[in-house]
Amino acid sequence: MESQRQAEAGKTVQRQRWKQDPEGVRANILEVALKEFADRGLSGARMDEIAAKTRTSKRMIYYYFGDKDGLYRKVLEQTYRKVRTGEKELMLDHLAPKEALRRLTEFTFDHHSRNPDFIRIVMIENIHHGEYLKHSDLIRGLNQEAISRIEAIYDKGLEQGVFRRGCSPLAIHWLISALSFFNVSNRVTFSLLFGDALHNHAGQLDLRSQVADAVLRFVADE
Amino acid sequence: MESQRQAEAGKTVQRQRWKQDPEGVRANILEVALKEFADRGLSGARMDEIAAKTRTSKRMIYYYFGDKDGLYRKVLEQTYRKVRTGEKELMLDHLAPKEALRRLTEFTFDHHSRNPDFIRIVMIENIHHGEYLKHSDLIRGLNQEAISRIEAIYDKGLEQGVFRRGCSPLAIHWLISALSFFNVSNRVTFSLLFGDALHNHAGQLDLRSQVADAVLRFVADE
DNA sequence: ACGCATTTGTACTAAACAGTTAAAACAAAC
DNA sequence: GTTTGTTTTAACTGTTTAGTACAAATGCGT
């Protein structure tokens, strides 16, 4: 009777037929790992926890990524890549320099705001003295583009006499990054110390516009 | 013969006479722990490592601070307190508003630059969603002062017609903090991606002045 | 039908780690 | 001189953690 039960059970339980989907599995692991690392930090994240949240197993993580560091490295690379490629949609060539710079700034502000996981990974990487980013060649190329984009706008603004001389595109990029980054990275502590006036919904809309003001005023002529 | 050796050794070893210095011991532990947490993060720091670097023992850490979280909490509080009190030296009342704001900005920029451990602790606290700062009442009071200081300068600037209306002291503080903070917090990754033009010695002097420019231009009239 | 890559699942190991135990000895204040 | 808080050791415990062993089965290109 017992064996019959098992036999029936064996029948009803569909033999788990699985597809081969290495890319899907890798992507799923990376997605879960990104969230977990971003949420708890590199040392804080637990491999068992990551494994449990994937649709696959711990065994597969080690199969594809070797060890925890290898996994983190891939998460880091993928995160940078995804965010940077997401920045390319912007068409600013046809706009007047001031308008182009405002759009770029507000776009960056929103973009960082929409990607807190990226911000947190960069924070974590800075905490770890950039030792993983150091050993990743893949990433460096992607970022010069950001500078070129600004340089194009700035040069045009100089020609038209609406921007002052003496600013460097790098410094302008730094300024935009700093404000957009800090807005996300320090949201928690800043809100705790000074209230959420800048970080509730209305506050963010206003702050974005003020950030764009700050950038424009920084490069403005006169 | 062997026992005689031991007896002689027993004589030569000076009975370790020690002083009671609870405050000194606590301070020493906190100092070491700050460096270790700032360097490796909360989960990354090791109690054994901290203990080894103190002039006392692991036992004493637990004697005074209970557990790792308790130690971190005290480090967090002390770090905020030390940095905030270090900001009070500034005498700006007698200066013209523009000059006062420039001095304040450049001071903050330098001050953060001189206290990378503080910056890193704040980063770590943000990574941990501020859960330790949340439960610390001690800290909140210290920070309103920063806003008042700016408000005084801003109001004076309005009276004299050198600042435009419509800026909030909170937003100005946010702006100064963002630029001064980001300069330290993201130094590593920014340098890796874009070179160290802004972060070598000459670059930092220039950047400080540009940051002050940005703040002044943000509030400037016309 | 062959071979290689992929997938499943569980139990395991070895190290790392936070926190404890125990018994003493000493300091300092009263 | 009694009491209370401080300091010294070094071994120890129990848990958490990254990473592995093992064994088998299926997918899929050729």
Automatic annotation (TrEMBL), chains A, B:
Gene3D superfamilies: Tetracycline Repressor, domain 2
UniProt keyword terms in alphabetical order: DNA-binding
Residue ranges flagged as DNA-binding region: 46-65
Domain spans labelled HTH tetR-type: 23-83
InterPro entries: Homeodomain-like_sf, HTH-type_TetR-like_transc_reg, HTH_TetR, NicS_C, Tet_transcr_reg_TetR-rel_C_sf
Superkingdom of this protein's organism: Bacteria
Protein name (Swiss-Prot/TrEMBL): TetR family transcriptional regulator
Phylogenetic lineage: Bacteria, Pseudomonadati, Pseudomonadota, Alphaproteobacteria, Hyphomicrobiales
